[in-house]
User: Which sequence fits this backbone?
């Protein structure tokens, strides 16, 4: 038999599903709030949180969490599912990457209770959600400027070990072992002792049904892997490491043009995109830094110096 899950004024008993608001802090017109979807299984088990909306212009992950929540049956489930479909609600309100303080939530580590609004939200998330969980999933879909393929990015545990079975259970075939910024939220989650991975798919500010379905299936796969529900394992899907690669930055500003496709194979030195000025004069050619496949690319034509352009993933080895 499971135990009640209590948070702020809500108490969710075993066998119950509840959608509730969590109050982070107070603004002049009322509290700043984030939504929480809790499905508390009839039996005891793991606690998994899934969060989307670190950025306010990402919608596929949000919709996927809602759909999974509707599908879950607490009387047939073990453990507790915590869904946060939109963490950065101030940014969501503005339909922007960031909230009114212009701070990137996914660069705030574990947050700061005495800091800016975005830092307060992150700290609240850590204190009330991360601290209660055994495992976590971050769903990112890259926002309105880019398009990206599906991959997962695991985080090392406190002791430096890497549990690849956990992110592999999601069901995608690409695993990025990269060096993310040290201030990203998932690094702080890993340091807090919670197994977590990030998954990315989609972009362009759209909520595409195919992407939502993929993410719902991925979350179900993980729930099955953690023995919270019954289902089929996704661990037999062949997977590949992605190393030593990330987005390339522009050196010029102007009009960005490319004819790329996701997962397209490219060769070192191959021209991938071109930047022109407003007189249609060529300013810069973006070339592939190595052999690989296209993981993501910019789709908004206006580009500024220093913006992301193209991500060429370098596949190193199959991991089975």
Assistant:
């Amino acid at each position: 038999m499971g135990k009640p899950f209590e948070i702020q004024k809500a108490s969710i008993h075993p066998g119950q599903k509840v959608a509730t608001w969590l109050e982070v802090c107070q603004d002049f017109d009322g509290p700043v709030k984030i939504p929480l979807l809790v499905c508390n299984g009839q039996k005891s088990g793991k606690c998994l949180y899934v969060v989307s909306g670190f950025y306010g212009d990402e919608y596929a992950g949000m919709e996927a969490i809602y759909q999974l929540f509707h599908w879950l049956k607490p009387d047939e489930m073990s453990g507790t599912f915590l869904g946060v479909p939109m963490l950065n609600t101030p940014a969501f309100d503005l339909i922007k990457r960031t909230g009114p303080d212009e701070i990137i939530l996914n660069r705030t580590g574990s947050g700061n209770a005495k800091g800016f609004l975005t830092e307060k939200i992150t700290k609240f998330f850590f204190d009330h959600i991360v601290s209660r969980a055994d495992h976590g999933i971050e769903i990112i879909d890259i926002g309105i400027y880019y398009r990206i393929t599906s991959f997962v990015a695991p985080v090392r545990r406190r002791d430096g070990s890497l549990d690849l079975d956990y992110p592999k259970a999601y069901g995608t075939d690409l695993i990025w072992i990269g060096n993310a910024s040290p201030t990203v939220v998932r690094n702080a989650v890993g340091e807090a002792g919670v197994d977590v991975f990030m998954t990315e798919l989609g972009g362009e500010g759209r909520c595409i049904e195919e992407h939502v379905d993929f993410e719902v299936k991925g979350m179900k796969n993980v729930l099955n892997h953690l023995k919270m529900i019954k289902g089929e394992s996704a661990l037999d899907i062949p997977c590949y490491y992605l190393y030593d690669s990330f987005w390339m930055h522009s050196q010029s500003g102007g009009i960005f043009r490319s004819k790329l496709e996701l997962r397209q194979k490219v060769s070192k030195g191959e021209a991938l995109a071109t930047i022109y000025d407003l007189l249609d004069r060529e300013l810069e050619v973006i070339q592939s830094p190595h052999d690989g496949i296209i993981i993501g690319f910019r789709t908004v034509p206006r580009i500024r110096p220093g913006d992301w352009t193209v991500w060429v993933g370098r596949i190193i080895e199959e991991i089975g």
The first helix runs from residue 60 to 71. The CA atoms of residues 115 and 200 lie 28 Å apart. The chain has a mean pLDDT of 93.
